[in-house]
Specification:
2 copies of one chain form a homodimer.
Chain A: H1 2-22, H2 35-40, H3 42-49, H4 51-73, E1 78-82, E2 93-95, E3 101-105, E4 112-113, H5 115-122, H6 129-138, E5 144-145, H7 149-158, E6 162-170, H8 174-183, E7 195-198, H9 208-217, E8 219-225, H10 242-250, H11 252-257, E9 262-264, H12 278-281
Parallel strand pairs in A: 3-6, 3-8, 6-7, 8-9
Antiparallel strand pairs in A: 1-2, 4-5
Helix pairs in contact in A: 3-4, 4-7, 6-8
């Protein structure tokens, strides 16, 4: 296994140095005097520590609030939750009728940064499933709001839009999750009213059922998540290849939805965005061989 | 060094698995039958291959175009380029006068995905500075537009906003860079008119000088980049710690600029967002110890 890791990290180190030079910058200064710690922290630096990711998140929340304000002014016929019989080929949305307005958000890395949990992995402490479960139930205040999220949920509530959280944490952690939402300054969440979790229905980690439950009672004008399962389970269809999934987001009616009812928050640390082999990420017609390499 | 890499990758692998379970997901399926390749591709999967990053980029371009349309309708007094004597404490912007409207964009990982170059690093081919230089001059068509960028630049030009690129590629690669911009479907760029590069003035990789040159002739209503140096050199001040830099983006007038004249495109692969040690990324008051770990 050692060789595997060495090559892996070496490649990524090279990528960083090469790309840094694309930007004509000197190579990164060591983040720490301890080279082990300096390497170990790298997967976490961008999302949890960079000004770039902060700007990226804040601009998304700004756009979401501006969009919601327009929807409040001109009430839409349809919400942004896909109907039960919708597909990529035949998209249509749950109708709004006279239902009150709501916005539906994932929790982890969408409104809440799990600093306490991730700091363990970043420090080299093994963090397995049971620990993650205990974190979810802990109600630990070692969290922060995603940049812009406090502004976002407050602005939405102020304009009369109900903020509803739909997370894939297990519903045994409902209390701890609500405590962390409150600790991050995101307000009061009530299980099965403004907070839905895995286990609240029979669909497990598939969120469509909970979305449809919410959309029965609300006109959902905006959804946001760091994973596309936070938008529709269509994106996690078993037969959807990494390439087809990317293409589905890039084209047609789906592409039009980004920033127009659907929003993504950055998360390069974990989740369904971290898939694909070399041939899927870099198609054969997008390779380049440096013929000058032997000059 | 081996131990360093082993621990590093192990930590990041744990982070992914832990966090994947935050989302109640089964651990990632191997991206490839070759475990070495599967590990090596990981740093590139999110930005270059995920549907999540595609949505994140498209929503930014949608918001930028909507914002620009408003500025075209109601011409602003000031642009969004900080004036020469501006500071975080005393921000003010170059005035617009009667100058024509423009939008200023970085190139690499802002409008252009450098697939051909990065595919080498992702495949384990060493990619050093000379190779990066040859890539910049190659004019290789092994590139793709950043999702949403073609829509963005076309919409801006259609509304009479001049699209100007300001990159830190060296100006010896002006021709190759213009060729890649064209190959990505981003149109025609002319050196020193709509394309500026490092070496075009005496400020090296600092972009403020080129921004001020552009702002002498244009009312710059929008700027976007994957690095904050694409917005202002203030963000790369030597004395600015990783923590202070993040805080600068999170608060006050700077926070208001994200999505309101300034935009960030995602890039967790390289650059100034990849800095900071454990204590900077996870402050002491945001740590959590799993007391149940020995259950």
């Amino acid at each position: 296994m050692k060789r595997l890791f060495v090559l892996a990290l070496a490649a990524s180190a090279l990528a960083v140095s090469a790309s840094a030079q694309v930007a004509q910058r000197a190579s990164q200064p060591a983040a720490s005097d301890d080279p082990v710690a300096a390497e170990r922290i790298k997967p976490f630096q961008y999302l949890y520590g960079s000004a770039e990711a902060a700007g990226l998140s804040i601009q998304a929340w700004h756009a979401l609030v501006d969009y919601a304000r327009q929807q409040v002014r001109h009430r839409p016929k349809n919400g942004v939750v896909l109907a039960e019989d919708a597909s990529f080929e035949n998209p249509h949305f749950v109708r709004c009728g006279k239902k009150p307005l709501a916005a539906v958000f994932d929790v982890d890395e969408t409104v809440l940064l799990n600093l306490g949990l991730e700091s363990n992995a970043a420090a080299g402490v093994p963090t397995g499933g049971p620990m993650v479960g205990r974190w979810g139930s802990s109600g630990s205040a070692a969290v922060a709001p995603v940049p812009g999220a406090v502004y976002g949920v407050n602005a939405l509530r102020k304009m009369g839009v109900t903020v509803i959280f739909n997370t894939n944490r297990g519903n045994k952690s409902a209390e701890g999750t609500a405590a962390q939402i409150a600790a991050a300054g995101l307000g009061h969440a009530v299980h099965l009213k403004t907070l839905y979790l895995a286990g609240d229905d029979q669909m497990g980690s598939r969120k469509d059922g909970r979305r449809w439950t919410i959309a029965k009672n609300y006109c959902v004008i905006a959804m946001a998540g760091d994973q596309l399962v936070d938008i529709s389970d269509l994106f996690n269809a078993k037969d959807l290849s990494v390439t087809d999934r990317r293409q589905a987001a890039l084209h047609g009616w789906v592409a039009q939805m980004w920033g127009n009812g659907w929003w993504v928050l950055p998360n390069p640390v974990y989740g369904s965005g971290l898939r694909g082999g070399l041939d899927e990420i870099f198609p054969a017609d997008k390779r380049w061989t440096d013929t000058g390499a032997n000059d």
